[in-house]
Structure formats: structure tokens, C-alpha cells
Amino acid sequence: MDRKIVFPRSIRYLLAVAEHNSFTRAAEALAVSQPTLSQQIKQLEESLDVQLLDRSGRSVRLTDAGEVYLLHARRALGELNAAQRAIHDLQDLSRGSLRLGMTPITDYLTAPLLDAFNAHYPGISVSTLEMPQDDIETGVAEDRIDIGIAFTNTLSSMASSGKIEAHILFGEKLNLAVGHTHACAEEQSLLSAVTLANEPLVLLNSDFVLRRYVDMYCMQNGITPRVAMETNSLSVIVEIVRLGRLATILPNTIATAQHGICSVKLTPQLPNHTITLICRKGGYKSPACSAFGRLAADWCDARAQSQPEPDEAPVCHGLSDA
Q1: Where are the extended beta strands (E) located within 10-157?
Q2: Which of 290, 261, 256, 258 is CA-nearest to residue 172?
Q3: Long-range contacts for 295-300 (Cβ within 8 Å, ≥24 apart)?
Q4: In this model, does residue 147 exceed pLDDT 50?
């Protein structure tokens, strides 16, 4: 038996006696005195109110009750051994699980990061949940989500309350996105906010942070957006915009990566936003959670080198292990 595994001493002594059929040899194997071993087994029998060993013969053997009891004891020991191996597997990241909360926007922006994480740690099961950012923050604070990936410049009061901590990955520009057949697709100059007011839009609904910032931008520039359609699905928005009649507001990275869609700059420029990892402040971080944070920082550095922004330097930070 592995001595590092915590197991009741009296049961370990009983297992040794059953193996050696002798109190003397069992005591020698365990490097304890025979009286100590005998006393421990006697106390175990008294606690169970049953005789576990037949001491009447030349050798000691298990009673029927002892056979049944050790059957379960060995099974329990096997489970403890399995638990120890599982913990080691977690530490070396050969197994584990990770719960991620994402918005529709961060789904698209961080899909390469998820793919890279799976390539590095194929034994870790990743579960992603798409939801509004407020729900992500609540889920992280309540430990229903390990890591949230948010798209915003500022977090809610949940963050300022000290329940969650944020780690910025990179900045992202927002622009008008239109299909290639849209009238604005060939526009060479910056479009004004007034021009935007005349364009029918398909947008995420007001549960999502991106929509709130679009509404705020319009209000600050004294225009009322023509919201022809709203949804909670970014895929729907992309497909509708690709058809060419409606426009939307998207991060530049998403717009330029979509076939049949182009990005058009506005003036005044829409506010830049950040992709941010959030986690529970002061909470336990599993090995998988810490590994994701480290990989996210490395991935962000690589992204900054391959997609440099001339007027904006991305900021990359990983999750701390605290």
C-alpha cells in the first residue's frame, strides 16, 4: 500500500494481517509492534461490533464478516489510488475541465485561442456558454463559470465590488460593416454619424454590451439609429449583412474576416474596446484555468505581431495564479 495515501490505520493493519496470515509478520512488514497492531484491529472490531479475524488456528484468517469488510476496504483503497492518479493528471494537464462564458462577439474573436488550447491540452474538456456580459460576470462571481471572455471597455458594478478581476488581452476597433453590394461598400472617405442615421441596421439586442455602446454613440452624436432588425446571434447578423441591404456595427477583425463583408470607418470614430478575461477574485484557479490564462497571454502576443495596429498597441496580460 502507498503510505502517502491517507487511509485509517486500523484498516491498513487489517489488510496486512490478511495478506500475511500472521500478526507477527504483519507487524514486521509495517514496522510496528505486535501489541499496537493487535490493539488497533481489536478496536476496529469493537466499533463494527463483529469479529473480523479468526485467531483460533495456527494461522490467522478472515472471518466471513472480515472477507466482506475487506472487499469494500480494498475497493475504497482502489478509489483513493485512482483519485491520487487523477490529481496528478490534473496537475500535468492530461485531464481536467474548463467552463468558459463568452458573448457572441468574443466567440468569433477568440475561436483561434480555443483551438490553440485544445491543440496544447487535448485531454481537457472545454465547455463554452454564450450569454450577455452581465450574466458572464455573475456566473464568474458565483463560480458557475471559470473564465469569462468579455468585450468592453468597462465592467459592471460586479467588477467594481471586488468579486471579479479583469485581465486585458487586446484592443479592438469598431466600424460599420456592410455587404460588398451595399451602397457604402465603395465609400473611400469616412462616413459621418449623420450618414449612419440613414442606414437600416441589424444589431445585437440591448442585452449585449456592444449594442449599448452603439446606442450610446448615436445618442452622443444626436442621431437615432434605424434598427430594422435585432437578434442575439452574431451569425444571423453576419448572414443578413452579407446579403447587402442592412448594415451593422462590428469589430474590425470580424468584419474583415467575413467573405462578402467590408469594414467602413465612421467619423467621429466609434470607441475602441477591449477583449478581457475575467475570473473570480481570490478564488481557486484550477490547473486548466491557469493554463488557459497563460496560453491566452502568449496567443495575444502572437496576434499582436501578426496583426499590428499602426495607431494602437494591443495590451496582453494573462491570468495570475493567485
Answers
A1: 53-54, 61-62, 96-102, 124-130, 147-151
A2: 256
A3: 295/113, 295/116, 295/117, 295/120, 296/113, 296/169, 297/169, 299/112, 299/113, 299/116, 300/169, 300/170
A4: yes
Q: How confident is the model at residue 133 (pLDDT cuts 50, 70, 90)?
A: confident
Domains annotated for the chain, with CATH where assigned, are 9-91 (1.10.10.10), 96-172+273-306 (3.40.190.10), 174-267 (3.40.190.290)
Say how many C-beta atoms besides its own lie within 10 A of residue 15's C-beta.
18
State how beta strands 174-179 and 248-251 pair. antiparallel
Entry field: residues in the chain: 322
In the chain the first and final C-alpha atoms are separated, in Å, by 35
How deeply is 137 buried, as exposed, middle or buried, from its count of CB atoms within 10 A (0-12, 13-18, 19+)? Answer: buried
Q: Is 304 exposed, middle or buried (0-12, 13-18, 19+ CB in 10 A)?
A: middle
The answer to whether 141 touches 158, Cβ cutoff 8 Å, is yes
Q: Is the pTM of this model over 0.85?
A: no
Whole-angstrom CA distances from 259 to 105, 180, 187, 239 are 17, 9, 18, 10
Whether the Cβ atoms of residue 234 and residue 106 lie closer than 8 Å to each other: no
